[in-house]
Amino acid sequence: MSGSRPGDRGRRAAAVLVGASVVAGAAACSEDSAPEGADAVKLAVSPGGGGGKLRPDSPIAVEAQRGTIENVRVSANRGEVEGDLNADRTRWRSRWTLEPGTTYTVDATALGKDGRTSTVRSTFSTAGVRKTNKVMIEAPYNKETVGVGIPIIMRFARRVKDRAAVERALEVTADRTVEGAWRWFGDQEVVFRTKKYWPAHTKVSFKAHLAGVRTGTGVYGGKNYGVAFKIGDSHVSTAGEDSHKMVVKINGKKARTIPTSMGRGGSRMFTTTNGVHLTMDKQDPTVMTSGWMGCGPGCPGYYSLTVYKAVRISNSGEFVHSAPWSVGSQGSVNVSHGCINISPSNAKWFYKMSLRGDPVRVTGSSRELEPENGWGYWQVKWNDWVKGSALKRSVTTAPHVDAATLSAQQKQQGAKPKAPEKQRAEGN
Q: Among 7, 72, 137, 139, which residue is least crowded by beta carbons within 10 Å?
């Protein structure tokens, strides 16, 4: 990218990086060969080219002595590479890993104290890779409108040994600044959750710059991933196991109070889980059976029901759904196998309104929702959530600004320059 061009500093081009065990090569350094005076700038680029092929997680750096960097452009056949200038404009460094098996050209220009410019070019190649780690983004979908509690969920096909390297490659930005953090569940799942619910109507972009990221010995990120999504209206429901009703608020205002019948209890499996659930999907109709608890046909207590307007809130068989057979008990007695039973008319309204990621909080129950039961991530206290990050810190969704641009902005505003916050959305 252009580290910064006169009149256009701080602008950066998006890198298109694609990846996939790798042969390491030696890094070289290319320097400007122009005659040097006492105030002539000395410009150096690393790597400086040569016959060896570099690992794709090798950084690109440009340094200037006795002057400042005016422009850096790193190009490849799939696009340009993003990078950052330091505050005094003497060092530029690439932000993300590089695409394996690709040739890169670095063009850099610097301005010396003598007022003269100097340019340098370097061309080098990265080695190809043989093993890749594929990724599935479970939520959200691209261009999806989601609820205020929505997490970003990534699952890896192979075990991730270097979780910190992966986390540094993850970038979440939004049109509102929100604090959040990544947390690992095992070595193949990483989840981003905000400290508080997303503000309604926030536009969010998630990019996983994984091409060339080494996730394990000889294993690299296969490609980059990304989704853009929007937070819809705030839908927050609170269902009381003991009050037999569910209060639904839309954008903070009570929209409807719904009579309910929840898990009848008597055993753990028939007890609705307590805590903050998130709506996960909608099914209309779906067939619910007792097979999930090991009770098939012929088993005492076996059931098989066709259910309409069902909104899933966990992976242990819990839904908010239409239950015409229990309308007489709704609002007074708990008779379900663990689901939240509501009337057909209320179910139709709730089903139509629901977005993936809407919070549904259950109170008064003796069985606590497990964090990994569906999307029970809000069950984890915030400080404990942050401890589950490989980098042990939270990040913000504020757009990234490099040190040179930040310094220039502060000078224009008459503020004393200071280093940018470390807690960036990409985790660097």
A: 7
